[in-house]
Automatic annotation (TrEMBL):
PROSITE patterns documented for this protein: HIS_KIN
CDD domains xref list: HATPase, HisKA
Provenance organism: Pontibacter flavimaris
SUPFAM superfamilies: ATPase domain of HSP90 chaperone/DNA topoisomerase II/histidine kinase, Homodimeric domain of signal transducing histidine kinase
Protein name, entry field: histidine kinase
Matches recorded under PANTHER family: HISTIDINE KINASE 1, TWO-COMPONENT HISTIDINE KINASE
EC number: 2.7.13.3
């Protein structure tokens, strides 16, 4: 459906100004927003100016049309010129420089909602410009349109200066609205960037927490496996002396019932030996379970004094010679840790020596950049290469001969304590002799003033 409103002949620049003005008036009365009014009128002005520049004269017809259920204000600009020979090329280009032919057509197309153009050689050109009307606009009757036409006919005073000034003011207003919208869009972009940055930081924090949780889960699994193994081994090793004690107690009971006191006296030392073995095993288990507790208090610890206390507490054979380096440092650390470490290393050197009459044990120390290195070296039977890693596990001694006073926990206690302090412990042995070395954080060294 199409309803014609008015027709204007385009013969000079004043007619172009009039066409622009009528486009503004009609779009305003039909309820368009000001920005759309300016777009439609500018598109009309561009095409009309092309008619004046390239043909000389033409006409413009304003109408109301309906397309797909929507109302449009339409301007049909026609001329009887020679046509546009390169129309397809013009329409295929998306960008034009200033003062290039075809710019007006492309700009008008961008400013309207519907755009159609036809051009035939020697038969002229027809350009249809349509701008969609708002659905909330006024209802227009034929009488209303006739009244508008009468008003326009009486409005014959057209000042190009006033119209251009009005156009410029309207364009400035539209530009100001665009500037405000650009500012608002820029603020929204900045907020989006800030939120993206914050989201990335949150993602990094979450990933870090997930990695920490994964590490802790792995550590917990290792601890659980260690506890399972520890509980299994402890239950097995505790059961053995208990069974022995039960057997000896039964034998003692039989000897006493039979009145065999001499036999009972021979059995009593065996009972004492089993109880002592069980006591050492329980003591070792307690020491292992306490190793690595960070809440133990620290104190200034003179290692020269500590080594004297450790050696004094051990059952050292008379033939044994224990040499301690004289310039051992003073540390601010947990006393029980180093007491356990040196006690286990030195007692093992004594316990497993096969030639006590020629035995020598040396305790030495060196300071490096970040760590203190302590070593306990003996001239005993040595440790086979294939056993040098296993001896730090629970109940592994690495010795082929039995040692009744060994709990099998000493070196595992040493490793656990040293690793809790961030250090390492290892053994070096080739043929006879063994050298146990462990590192201790230099940050706990008390510097001499």
């Amino acid at each position: 459906m199409q309803r014609s409103i008015l027709r204007i002949d385009i013969n000079n620049e004043l007619d172009v100004v009039l066409a622009y003005k009528r486009a503004m008036q009609l779009s305003e009365r039909l309820g368009m927003q000001q920005a759309n009014q300016t777009k439609f009128a500018t598109a009309v002005s561009e095409i009309c100016r092309n008619v004046i520049e390239y043909v000389g004269n033409g006409t413009i017809q304003y109408s109301l049309t309906e397309v797909a259920g929507y109302q449009y204000l339409e301007a049909l600009v026609t001329d009887r010129g020679r046509g546009i020979g390169n129309l397809e090329f013009i329409l295929s280009r998306s960008e034009y420089g200033h003062n290039v032919r075809g710019t007006g057509i492309i700009n008008s197309k961008k400013l309207t909602d519907l755009f159609e153009i036809e051009s035939d050689f020697e038969r002229g050109t027809r350009v249809r410009l349509s701008k969609r009307l708002p659905q909330t606009g006024p209802v227009i009757s034929r009488g209303t349109l006739e009244n508008w036409v009468q008003e326009f006919e009486q409005d014959t005073d057209i000042s190009p200066y006033a119209e251009i000034k009005s156009q410029n003011m309207q364009l400035l207003e539209v530009l100001e609205q665009l500037r405000l919208r650009n500012l608002e869009a820029e603020q929204q972009l900045q907020e989006i960037r800030r939120l993206n940055t914050q989201l990335q930081q949150y993602n990094q924090d979450i990933n870090q927490l997930l990695e920490e949780r994964e590490q802790r889960n792995k550590l917990l699994q290792e601890v659980n496996q260690s506890l399972d193994s520890f509980a299994h081994t402890v239950s097995h090793d505790l059961r053995a002396p208990l069974q022995n004690i039960n057997g000896i107690a039964t034998a003692l009971e039989a000897c006493l019932e039979a009145g065999q006191l001499e036999e009972a006296n021979r059995v009593f030392p065996m009972l004492r030996q089993q109880t002592q073995k069980m006591d050492r095993l329980i003591t070792g288990i307690l020491a292992y379970s306490l190793a690595g507790h960070h809440n133990l208090p620290k104190k200034a610890l003179d290692l020269q004094v500590l080594l004297y206390q450790v050696i004094s507490s051990l059952n050292v054979p008379a033939q044994f010679r224990i040499e301690v380096q004289e310039d051992l440092p003073v540390l601010y650390t947990q006393e029980v840790y180093l007491y356990q470490v040196f006690s286990n290393l030195i007692s093992n050197a004594i316990k497993y020596h096969d030639q006590p009459e020629q035995a020598t044990v040396q305790v030495t120390y060196t300071a490096e950049k970040e760590w203190l290195y302590f070593a306990v070296e003996d001239n005993g039977p040595g440790i086979a290469a294939e056993a040098q890693q296993e001896i730090f596990n629970m109940y592994e001694t690495g010795q082929s001969f039995a040692t009744p006073d060994s709990s099998g926990l000493g070196l595992s206690i040493v490793r656990k304590i040293v690793e809790e302090k961030g250090g390492k412990v290892w053994v070096e042995s080739q043929g006879r002799g063994s050298r146990f070395t462990f590192t201790w954080p230099k940050t706990e060294l008390i510097q001499e003033s």
